[in-house]
Write the structure tokens for this entry.
Amino acid sequence: MAIDEANTLVAQHAVPLPAPGQQGKNIEQDATIWWQAVLQLLRQLFTDIDARRIAAIAVDATSATVLLCDREGRPLHPALMYNDARADEEAGRIRETAATEATAAVASASSGLAKLLWLQKQDFSDRGCFFLHQADWIAGRLSDRFGFSDFNNALKSGYDAQARRWPEWMDALGVKRSWLPRISPPGSPLAPVSVDIAQDLGLNKDCLITAGTTDSTAAFLATGASQTGEAVTALGSTLVLKIITEQPVAAAEYGIYSQPLPDLNPTPDNRLRWLCGGASNSGGAVLRQYFSDVQMAQMQTRLDPDTPTGLDYYPLPRRGERFPINDPALSPRLTPRPEKDVLFFQGILEALARIEKDGYDKLQQVGAPKPTRIYTTGGGSRNPAWRKIRERLMQIKVLTAAQTEAAYGAALLAKRGWQSKRG
């Protein structure tokens, strides 16, 4: 997505990526596939707008998709994808060693830190290299400068954004600090676009590459939420809640952790604010087990949000919940089922609204503020009856976000970097 100085969207394009290769817990992809997609995407974009007018570029991507590359940026192996879970043993070591406040972000087998420890056991010891996240590597290809990352991507690799350093407890794990990237706030100016890329794509040689962020953080920025207490509920396959806080909040037992909020609107004292969040296993994936998108669209107009069904459901796609209830043995509860599909549909929507309310209540219990307003993203945001159900239950204004694409949030970060560079 490309935006102008008024944040107006002026052009957008998308390029599909093939599915990663999967063998058991191992899920990986050749990073050069990403780069070819980026080049294809930018060439398409620049058929709609003049490439020479692009002032800055930022990249968002999945935070725990990682790879090692050499000093020239050449990948040393297929990238380990965000959901690659091969590093079980390493995750166990992290749980035994990590500081309590860091555990929720780094203790799973899919975390960047667990993957880094796994990579250290492979045969790369005699080659100088950088440990990078997906967005870092793409930004490096654009600028021809590698070894840089940002607060948000580095969080699941162990970075302490509050102290602004890689923490000392990582030494007990034997982390190779020489592999770790230098960390900057998202949107920070990194370097101009490389001469070769500028010539290839027709970009201005002064086009700035800035530090990027994760896709979920970029999607949050896209909504326009910016004040303490403003929250975003993503109504996708799962139910993800995030709220802006003044201080980091964490509760590892519920998977609750905080990450820095990029400063699109810096505070006068330049202090960090935080995104605190949690994710339920419940969500739209449960609805799709019973209804097609066409069926749900047809039933939306027949919902009666002012008349509760009285059904006491807890919709889960399978056994196990993590937030706002931490119970790996929790079973889905979706009975009794009414004869009318529309009542069953509304009963599930009501249950999802209760989980959302309980989730924000849980965040308050561990130190987050009460939401002042809630922006909504994802497919469920287009259901006005569901929004009314949620507003009645939570007694909080629920808004449909005007922009929800992570790429729009990344464009806002690029603008922020350009503004700071310009002074």
User: Anything to note?
Assistant: The domain at 2-214+407-422 is CATH 3.30.420.40 (Nucleotidyltransferase; domain 5). The CA atoms of residues 231 and 243 lie 4 Å apart.
